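Example 418, ligand flavin-adenine dinucleotide.
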Amino acid sequence: MTRYSAWSVFRNALTKQEDWDRAWRDPEPKPAYDVIIIGGGGHGLATAYYLARNHGITNVAVLEKGWLGGGNTGRNTTIVRSNYMLNANGHFYEHSLKLWEGLSQDLNYNVMFSQRGVLNIAHSSSQMESYSRRGNAMLLNGIDSELLSRDEVQKFVPDLNYSSNARFPIYGGLLQRRGGTARHDAVAWGLARGADMRGVDIIQNCEVTGILRDGDKVTGVETSRGTIRAPKIGVAVAGNTGRITEMVGMRVPIESHLLQAIVSEPLKPFIDTVVTFGVGHFYISQSDKGGLVLGGDLDGYNSYAQRGNLPTIEHVMACGVAMYPALSRIRMLRHWGGVMDMSMDGSPIIGKTPIKGFYLNCGWCYGGFKATPGSGHVFAHTIANDAPHPFNEDMTLERFSSGAVIDERGAGPTPNAH
Ligand SMILES: Cc1cc2nc3c(=O)[nH]c(=O)nc-3n(C[C@H](O)[C@H](O)[C@H](O)COP(=O)(O)OP(=O)(O)OC[C@H]3O[C@@H](n4cnc5c(N)ncnc54)[C@H](O)[C@@H]3O)c2cc1C
């Protein structure tokens, strides 16, 4: 596999760029592997990558029913941050953010990680207090965080609605400067290339239709391309988690909801950070192509569909125009949706299950893209050692029966409030 560098670009120019290696192979599935990962999104690919890179486990297959990154990984608004209040989430997402900071070099693939900052706007004095509490908790956990006054917010993002008759007055904001965005497709492609280089088989158009068991342990999967055996199976299928766990007779505390996003026509540089609105659910950033990328709340019903409804888009735009009046003059180009795996405490599940060799990675709610490297890193550790990594030891499935939930809904998703 060619290492990407300025020299390799120059050398390939001499042969009209026609001699590049394929970024990953297209192998036929083998009859058996040491580990099968179900789901070729960012989390499944990152898990396979770290299994090979950190644990020397290379006899691995990633089974993807469609194409790589065709799920939420290729549909999200790419915000990366670690601004959580509770310890378990704070340490885990900070671990992930640190991996992001070196990911392009590690993969030898530019994932276009841009630390342009993530700013949460506060619209009341009580919201400033809760941001201050979260910011202090972050600082105590060694995570960067700054509480900005109204004037500092205005200096940082001049185009918000600061007028005296603004419907939602601005009191200040919580800024994480190390947060930002990354290019979602590149993340999937870079991880796929890195895993493939180390011997992992990435098998697309291969839907898992059944799980094979021998008593209390798994032995393999039935797929649209035949039976494949393995003593260990990692599930990373986001909104389809319930469908896979149903195959082993297991119910999980996950609801599948649709989440939409919108992108505008390309514009000149206008917003050089990520801004979130603190009253409704609305956030905005600008892509490198110039499109404004906007997102908001879930469509309020359970669904496995990847297409949403216009009232939600209208709601997002209403929030957007209240915050950024100039948006009312901008044309929107496209909108799309993905199926979110909403956990009931707003935090992920990464770990073992009561079935031997069957591991779960789900519950990412609105925010699993930023977790991609961290999630793959600790999930690979869990599968390789049959024991959690310190960063996911609280993110168990059992917490929903023991009561030790990681209740972070105040800082994000509230699926059961819809
Ligand atoms: C509109 C939108 C905006 C978002 N914005 C952000 C954001 O700004 N920041 C952030 O951090 N997160 C965001 N997210 C969430 C984030 O995208 C996801 O949490 C994350 O990408 C999930 O990655 P994954 O690998 O778990 O799932 P996916 O990328 O969905 O991958 C799962 C894969 O499993 C495959 N699969 C399913 N069933 C089977 C089967 N039976 N057999 C084989 N394969 C199967 C699917 O085809 C899919 O490719 C957003 C999501 C959406 C939809």
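Summary: Residues 38-44, 63-66, 70-73, 75-79, 207-208, 236-238, 240, 244, 259-261, 295, 338, 364, 366-370 surround flavin-adenine dinucleotide (CB under 6 Å).
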